[in-house]
Write a structure and sequence with these properties.
- The strands form three sheets. Strands 1, 5, 6, 7, 8, 9, 10, 11 and 12 form a nine-stranded mixed sheet that branches. This protein has a five-stranded mixed sheet with strand order 14-13-15-16-17, sandwiched between helices.
- It has 16 helices and 17 strands.
- By secondary structure, it is of the alpha+beta class.
């Protein structure tokens, strides 16, 4: 039997690769609009880089092994620890704030399901060296603008936002001991996905009184205005409410307020988040989170680096691709052949004139193909049609100087007398074709 593709991994045939390239190109275009620089790191890292701060869920999903040098290593399941290590190594010389992005392939051994594989590509965007909530608003603005660049609107996608500091202040105000907070986080994280009775039982098992359990269960529907009026004067909560209000005002000024929904159940599963956190979901609820991230001010220091505030997000290609296809927004791959050059094989100058024509048009920047063996002109033009060529050019060497029968798809044939004129015709025709496809 021929070898099979491993479960949870993908082959990218040209059609799928074109879709992936469209996602990558859109990511790069928008992120660079925000003046971020691209970087990358190794796909294989020391195991301890992830066991130290990634959280139990990711640690349990690692592709890990001992290499031939006896080192415990793992395929990268996320990019943030690598980013933190790299920034920490040059923290004293880097211009602040650091604004970097990458698009790594990541690996996690988990149960494959809709929107989740064992490998995926992910846009990672991070800012280091800025504690003000304006940086948080800038980050979310970029994530939202990426959604808009793919043709999605606030009717399609919602940014659900919370703040770990605000949540912690609420828990302190409710007289919940700090060692119990992780148990509350776990319940909040699953509040939408499990029956309320089970959530209540788990909170009661954490020794929380009924009134406190009811208050926590009410977090699921608590909007920011209600929180402000109900808890805004509490000493443990007030500074965090004020900070979050500033964040909302910045988001409004950036033009993304309609995408926002305050949601205390967004706590993020990773162990290192410390401030504002967010996730992007489709409004129908058909898919997993499209994007998630937040502030992780202590991570660089915990990895032995400089103590610098930081924040970032990750946006995977799997869920995003499924969402774009479901909404009819996945851009169809453009034809790989712009121009097809043909020449009768019984011509005296075959194939030299055809090759010279192809070389000139390729030098002009066009994608050019021709038959790699002798064929009748009709057969060559049929191959051009099957390839989806945008235009065909037949080299005619009947006269002393060659001429060219040029035809764009769906247009009348034009007779072009010189190679320079053909170059002009090709550029003009393909520009019109590109415009008509937009």
């Amino acid at each position: 039997m021929p070898p099979k593709l491993l479960p949870g991994f993908r082959d990218f045939y040209p059609e799928q690769f074109a879709e992936r390239a469209h996602i990558f190109e859109t990511w790069r275009r928008i992120v660079r609009r925000y003046a971020f620089q691209e970087y990358d790191g190794p796909p294989l890292e020391p195991l301890e880089l992830y066991t130290q701060k990634s959280g139990d869920e990711i640690v349990g999903q690692l592709f890990e092994f001992v290499d031939k040098g006896g080192r415990a290593v793992a395929m990268r399941p996320e990019m943030t620890p690598t980013f933190a290590r790299m920034v920490g190594a040059r923290a004293q010389t880097l211009r602040k704030p650091v604004r970097w992005f990458s698009m790594p392939q990541l690996f996690r051994y988990e149960r494959t399901q809709k929107g989740r594989l064992r490998e995926h590509f992910q846009l990672n965007v991070d800012i280091v060296g800025e504690a003000d909530v304006l940086a948080d608003a800038e980050l979310l603005s970029m994530a939202v603008e990426i959604m808009a660049a793919f043709g999605l609107t606030a009717s399609d996608v919602r940014a659900r936002v919370s703040d770990r500091r605000l949540l912690n202040g609420l828990l302190a105000h409710l007289a919940i001991d700090e060692p119990t907070w992780p148990a509350v986080y776990a319940v909040l994280d699953k509040l939408e996905r499990q029956p309320q009775e089970i959530s209540a039982e788990k909170l009661a098992a954490a020794a929380l009184p009924p009134a406190t359990v009811d208050a926590i269960l009410g977090f699921a529907t608590l909007d920011f205005a209600t929180l402000q009026s109900r808890y805004g004067q509490a000493p443990e909560v007030a500074p965090h409410v004020e900070r979050f209000a500033q964040y909302v005002a910045h988001c409004d000024a950036l033009g993304i307020a309609e995408w926002l929904r305050f949601d205390l159940t967004i706590v993020r599963g990773l162990a290192y988040y410390t401030g504002i956190v967010f996730e992007l979901f489709d409004n129908i609820g058909e898919f997993r989170a499209i994007c998630g991230g937040g502030r992780y001010d202590n991570l660089l220091k915990s990895l032995g680096g400089t103590d610098l505030p930081a924040l970032g997000f990750g946006m995977g290609d799997v869920v995003l691709g499924e969402l774009l296809k479901a909404r009819g927004l996945m851009k169809a791959p453009a034809p790989s052949v712009a121009l097809w050059i043909a020449q009768a094989p019984d011509s005296a100058s075959y194939p030299t004139a055809m090759l010279q024509t192809a070389a000139r048009l390729r030098a002009d920047g066009h994608a050019v193909e021709f038959a790699l063996r002798e064929q009748r002109v009709e057969k060559q033009l049929e191959a051009a049609r099957k390839a989806g060529s945008l235009a065909t050019i037949v080299v005619d060497t009947t006269d002393a100087a060659p001429s060219y029968r040029a035809r764009a798809a769906g247009a009348q044939e034009a007779i072009v007398r010189t190679l320079d004129a053909l170059s002009t015709w090709a550029s003009s025709t393909l520009n019109r074709t590109d415009t008509s496809h937009e």
